[in-house]
Amino acid sequence: MRADSLSALIDALPLPTIVIGPDDRILASNAPVAAILGTDLVGRHYITALRQPALLDAISKARAQAGAEISRFSGRDGGNDTVYRVVVAPAEDDIVISFEDQTAAENIGQMRRDFVANVSHELRTPLTALLGFIETLGGAARDDPAARERFLGIMEGEANRMTRLVDDLLSLSRVEEDERVRPRDHVDLAALLASVIKGLEPQMQSSGVTVTLKNNGSGELVPGDAGQLVQVFTNLIENGIKYGASGGQVSVVLYPREHHRRLRGDGVRICVCDKGEGIAAHHITRLTERFYRVDNHRSRQVGGTGLGLAIVKHIINRHRGRLAIESTVGEGTQVSVLLPV
Fold first, then answer.
1. Do 189 and 217 contact (CB within 8 A), yes or no?
2. Rounded CA gap, 229 and 215, in Å?
3. How many CB atoms lie under 10 A from the CB of residue 303?
4. What is the pLDDT of residues 228-282, one digit of tens each?
5. 123: exposed, middle or buried (Cβ count in 10 Å: 0-12, 13-18, 19+)
6. Is the entire prediction scored with pTM above 0.70?
7. What is the mean pLDDT of the chain?
8. CA-CA distance, 280 to 69, in Å (whole number)?
9. How far apart are CA 6 and CA 11, in angstroms?
10. pLDDT band for position 39 (cuts 50, 70, 90)
11. What is the pLDDT of residues 106-151, one digit of tens each?
12. Strands 210-215 and 249-254: what pairing?
């Protein structure tokens, strides 16, 4: 086949493809392969273009055994690593090599492994504690009422911690499942926020924190799922009470409808602000990651699972809104939620 006909043929293929001739030089390459190997490949020896030992071995085996081989190729796309599944197939005297991008699948697999590892770690600690206390209660502390009461209290706390974790995992799963479905009901944000604050009065009293609501929204209705929005603002205000308790005050402000550039249209803004210790800047971008905690020990002490802000992020995404977190160490934290109207 003439070189120009061969080039026209592989240009019609959607996958990045190159053809190596019997003299081990590249006969043709299509446009998609330029993003992986660069341009001006035709005429070069394939070793100078591919360079990765596993793939070079696959090419040698395919030529020697006249059978197809499967290999991998690792590359870079800007600042990100990429992974390709490479099929090396002989075609008479030539070798045809095609690249299939597996980066997304690899990333999903890594996320799944990380998720399982994190859940396992989160459950292992309370389970280990429970097993240790059960063993102690069955032995040395069997006839010690004071120790028994203390250990049972700790065991109850650890069991509650596992229950919260499982509840948050189930909640996160449901939120992710519904994320592409836009809510169709309309919600009175002022009434919803007042109800959330009312429900958090026990936490406010035990922490000595005052929560105030300033309503500038004039009864604005927004498209939303009331149950999920209650979950969002319960989480944000509860975080303000737990982690901003040193400031003694959390303010919730509902702003009137206006045009927001980040929404590319009209929306309302709700701010939850505390005057606590604040969060260092390098933590801010990671706060919505699953299981990410600024202070692991303190988070567990106050009952945090590390999933709350991840759930908040997915719910706000479902509502086509935006979440912004700003904080200054020593001054406090402000969390803003933008919701379209």
1. yes
2. 17
3. 12
4. 999 999 999 998 998 877 778 999 999 998 998 888 889 999 999 998 888 888 8
5. middle
6. no
7. 86
8. 51
9. 8
10. confident
11. 888 887 887 788 788 778 888 888 888 888 887 777 777 888 888 8
12. parallel
Q: How many other C-beta atoms are found inside a 10 Å radius of the C-beta of residue 36?
A: 20
Mean pLDDT of 308-332: 91
In whole angstroms, what is the distance from residue 218 CA to residue 248 CA? 28
What Rg value do the Cα atoms of the chain yield, rounded? 29
Give which of 308, 181, 287 is closest to 234, Cα–Cα.
308
Residue found under tokens 């001739």: 21
CB 26 within 8 A of CB 49: yes
Inter-CA distances, 108 with 31, 103, 104, 112, 115, Å: 27, 9, 6, 6, 10
Cα 243 from Cα 237, distance rounded (Å): 10
User: Per this entry, what is the length of the chain?
Assistant: 341
Three-state secondary structure along the chain?
CCHHHHHHHHHCCCCCEEEECCCCEEEEECHHHHHHHCCCCCCCEHHHHHCCHHHHHHHHHHHHHCCCEEEEEEEEECCEEEEEEEEEEEECCEEEEEEEECHHHHHHHHHHHHHHHHHHHHHHHHHHHHHHHHHHHCCCCCCCHHHHHHHHHHHHHHHHHHHHHHHHHHHHHHHHHHCCCCCCCEEEHHHHHHHHHHHCHHHHHHHCCEEEEEECCCCCEEECCHHHHHHHHHHHHHHHHHHCHHHCEEEEEECCCEEECCCCEEEEEEEEEECCCCCCHHHHCCCCCCCCCCCHHHHHHCCCCCCHHHHHHHHHHHCCCEEEEEEECCCEEEEEEEEEC
Provide the terminal-to-terminal Cα distance of the chain, rounded to the nearest Å. 61
Q: Which amino acid is at 153?
A: G
Whether 261 and 323 have beta carbons less than 8 Å apart is answered as: no
Task: Print burial letters for 244-275: b (CB count within 10 Å at least 16), e (below 16).
Answer: bbebebbbbbbbebeebeebeeebbbbbbbbb
